[in-house]
TrEMBL record:
ABC transporter domain sequence ranges: 5-47
GO molecular-function term, one example from the UniProt record: ATP hydrolysis activity
Protein name: ABC transporter
UniProt xrefs under SUPFAM superfamilies: P-loop containing nucleoside triphosphate hydrolases (SSF52540)
Superkingdom field: Bacteria
Record-stated family: Belongs to the ABC transporter superfamily.
Entries under PANTHER family matching the protein: ALIPHATIC SULFONATES IMPORT ATP-BINDING PROTEIN SSUB, TAURINE IMPORT ATP-BINDING PROTEIN-RELATED
Gene3D superfamilies: P-loop containing nucleotide triphosphate hydrolases (3.40.50.300)
Keywords: Cell membrane, Membrane, Translocase, Transport
């Protein structure tokens, strides 16, 4: 019950999972991960299916729990803003190598509209966009009718 209280769901302890919203389900998953007081918390795109406002609420919750419980977290995300908001260090992985290793020296809680936040976000985005995905070769053109040869 303490883990559910930590994520603000003690009053929903008796509910069936199908009765919970997506954000509440993510908080339950977080509570389950934290119930044994881990020293390392691995998060792989945990908020990808949530709407923008719920994601921001979850960012604040994860940060609060991190401060209170002192665990180390490894977050995998494709959301640059999320990475800057939550991380002390952002690693951009390309082809199995660290293409960017960026410290995030911003005060907590982080203000998304602060110039330092937007500067770091822009730096990561510029690096990501520096190498656009390789385009597939265009499909072969059909042979024009004038080049066809007919035999009888």
């Amino acid at each position: 019950m303490a883990a559910l209280a930590d994520v603000g769901l003690a009053d929903r302890a008796g509910e069936w999972p199908s009765r919970l919203s997506g954000g509440q389900r993510q908080r339950v998953a977080l509570a389950r991960a934290l119930v044994h007081k881990p020293r390392l918390l691995l998060l792989d795109e945990p908020l990808g299916a949530l709407d923008a406002l719920t994601r921001i609420e979850m960012h604040a919750l994860i940060e609060r729990l991190w401060r209170e419980q002192g665990f180390t977290a490894l977050l995998v995300t494709h959301d640059v803003s999320e990475a800057i908001a939550l991380a002390d260090r952002v690693l951009l992985i390309e082809d199995g190598h660290a293409a960017l290793d960026l410290r995030v020296p911003l005060e907590r809680p982080r203000e998304r509209t602060a110039s330092g936040f937007t500067t770091l976000e822009d730096r990561v985005l510029r690096r990501v966009l520096q190498h656009p995905p390789v385009e597939e070769a265009p499909p072969a053109r059909p042979t024009p009718f004038s080049r066809w040869r007919w035999a009888a």
